[in-house]
Amino acid sequence: MGLLQGVLVLVVIVVLDSRGFVQEQPGFQEKQLLQGPVKPLDWRFPIVPEVQSELVVDFQLRQPVTPSSVAVQCGENRVLVEVKKDLFSNGQLIQPSGLSMGGCPVVDEDSASRVLLFEYELQDCNGVLMMIEDELVYTFALTYTPEAFAGTPITRTNGAVVGVQCHYQRPTWVPYASTEVGEEVLLFSLKLMMDDWSYQRPSNLYFLGDVVNIEASVKVYNHVPLRVFVDCCVATQVPDVNALPRYSFIENHGCLVDAKATASSSRFMPRTQEDQIRFQLEAFMFQGGYSPSIYITCIVKATLASAPSDALRKSCSFCNGYVHIAFDTSSALLNLGICLLGIQWEGKASLGPVMVQEQPKTFAGFQ
Questions:
Q1: pTM (whole model) above 0.85
Q2: According to the UniProt entry, where is the signal peptide (predicted)?
Q3: Among 133, 171, 239, 327, which has the minimal tally of Cβ within 10 Å of its Cβ?
Q4: How many CA atoms lie within 13 Å of 183's alpha carbon, on the beta-carbon side?
């Protein structure tokens, strides 16, 4: 017999006592039994709303730029530099005591226009003379070091280094007279060279461990033959030769001491021309430096090619703790006890920036 759908059955539980009377139990309960098919459950877990993904914003970190608040006037023998006190064009005025040009301080201030003035000779303020194609270029480093607020150790102004340059047309010839040989001006230069020294290297980028080939030379024009020497060299992170940190790697009138200090393979190369001298320097970086740039500044000397080498004009390298001095077959033997006096020219030559980076990391099977 089929079950009636939807019939509600009431079930009563009774208990008879010992006398046969019906005894009602405390907690009397009723149960409802639903006969027939059960309605499907329509409850569902609540839907968690999707979190909207963040919108892609075109954000770029602002990079420092060279301020447009520096003006330069290049004279025949002097340079005039004007710097706005609002150096960064942000409304914050810099302190004159924090600004220098190659170590030279501000000489005057125009309070009305809020302009700081530098005026010096081209040979002052550690200016670096470079020869670029048909131009002579004097480069100065304008450096601003922010000072802390009075009574506090903090500052809210960025530091800056701005390169200031004066360009002059290079003379095509230098008049020569034997009676005035000591008054002539010679042009010294430094160049990055290819591994085989065949021509100038087109890139200034190196990795740690690379060998940097450098050639120092002197332009002789209508001059008697000259022999060139590198007297001393320092490396800095900015064009200012007195900036810190600085690394002196050629000292003592021509000794390349990098190998002695760091056990590197840096050395002078055998001379192939009198008016050129070449040396190799292992690429390096300044520890904790803020820039991969390296500027090299050298004092370069030239003597008559017929004059012998001496203690003040030499080229020596260190190898395994020993000193090796480069001799020229046309020169007399070196006599360290005698300093041969004679005509000598001296100049400053620079190179940079040379960019040095860490070696790219490699993994097994990947590069």
A1: no
A2: 1-24
A3: 133
A4: 6
